[in-house]
Write a structure and sequence with these properties.
The chain is α+β, with helices and mostly antiparallel strands and about 350 residues long. The protein contains 7 helices and 19 strands.
């Protein structure tokens, strides 16, 4: 009888061990510095960069890193409606490309359609009493304002007709030139970004945003009805370090020399100052949105406060339930894994006790 009981307990422990492995296996991997790396189940990634303004940093709240939050696709962050389970706002801490210039990057799963960049600081909730007009903050007004973020960013690819900036580039000929180079033998126009370009069966000539860098427009801000300020920007071709000048560069054309000749190359400037909240126009939520796999990327250059209102950072950053402000990294599924581990320890103790009891 004792052997049978021990056998049952050991079997339960083995099942729980497999459950623990399963929980950890589906979790996003966090490296030793607490930064995001894709989980083992992610099949394909592409690298995207983010230039975080120096003014987004906060000594007071120990905010020195860039964060990224997404709610659809692989390794999603935790959503308010509970449809996805993962790290709460501000999401994942990004990898560092160049610390001195505030250049960060992600090896982002290619099935992630949208994300929000931020300064990896939870600003907490801001609520306003409709009757009295009294405003209260989950943490403080100062922390709420110190937490910076972009509007929702389309991060998979742009197609002709999607993006106002690229649609008007080169007197409106950008996509035509890209199409000509894509179809023809002369790929010069595509430069080192030739692999970015493809022809979508529904949307036509398109380009992945792989190895491109998102730069905010400090004059293009919006304030949501909850009082949260967001910043719009654009993805540009990231050229990296210019060995001659020692400066990092990005620009509007896939071919660096052509961009240089056209005056479309910019030097990375981490000190670009965002607009202050009183300069930003308050906007109401917008329900105009494409499906999750092909969102309207023009909204990134003319942001609205309510894009994806049920799951975007405009909702999350102002209604987040996480109270941690120490910017520690979050291991997806860590709480569940800890619980399973605790059960394993109890089960192991039970095995030892039972063996001694019945021997």
């Amino acid at each position: 009888m004792s052997k049978k009981l021990i056998s049952i307990i050991v079997s339960c422990a083995l099942v729980l061990s497999l459950a623990l492995v399963g929980v950890i296996g589906v979790s996003a991997a966090i490296d030793t510095d607490g930064r995001y790396v894709p989980s083992e189940g992610v099949k394909e990634t592409h690298k995207v960069y983010f230039l975080m303004p120096e003014s987004w940093k906060s000594e007071k709240y120990n905010a020195h890193d860039a964060g990224a939050y997404w709610w659809n696709g692989s390794d999603p962050c935790g959503s308010l409606d509970g449809t996805s389970v993962g790290p709460a706002w501000p999401g994942y801490k990004m990898q560092v490309e160049n610390a001195e210039n505030n250049i960060f990057y992600l090896d982002l799963p290619t099935d992630v359609p949208n994300l929000d960049f931020n300064n990896y600081l939870n600003g907490g909730q801001r609520t306003e009493d409709a009757a009295t007009g009294k405003v209260t903050y989950e943490f403080s007004e100062d922390q709420f304002k110190a937490a910076k973020q972009t509007a929702d960013v389309s991060c998979q690819y742009y197609s002709e007709g999607d993006n106002e900036y690229y649609d008007s580039l080169l007197d409106g000929e950008f996509w035509a030139k890209a199409q000509e180079a894509f179809d023809g033998d002369d790929k010069t126009f595509l430069g080192k970004f030739a692999d970015n370009f493809f022809e979508d069966p529904d949307w036509g000539i398109s380009m992945y945003l792989t190895n491109m860098i998102y730069v905010i427009d400090p004059t293009n801000t919006s304030v949501s009805v909850t009082g949260k300020e967001t910043y719009a920007g654009e993805f540009y071709f990231y050229y990296g370090l210019n060995e001659e000048t020692g400066k990092y560069e990005y620009g509007s054309l896939p071919n660096y020399d052509m961009a240089k000749e056209a005056g479309l190359v910019q030097t990375v400037d981490k000190n670009a100052a965002p607009a202050t909240p009183d300069q930003a126009a308050t906007t109401a939520p917008s329900s105009d949105k494409k499906d999750d796999n092909k969102t309207d990327s023009t909204k990134n250059t003319v942001p609205t406060a309510g894009q994806n209102p049920t799951s975007s950072a405009n909702a999350v950053s102002t209604a987040d339930t996480a109270n941690s402000t120490d910017n520690s990294a979050v291991q997806t599924g860590a709480t569940t894994a800890a619980a399973v581990l605790a059960v394993l320890l109890v089960a192991g103790g039970a095995v030892l006790y039972t063996r001694k009891r019945f021997e």
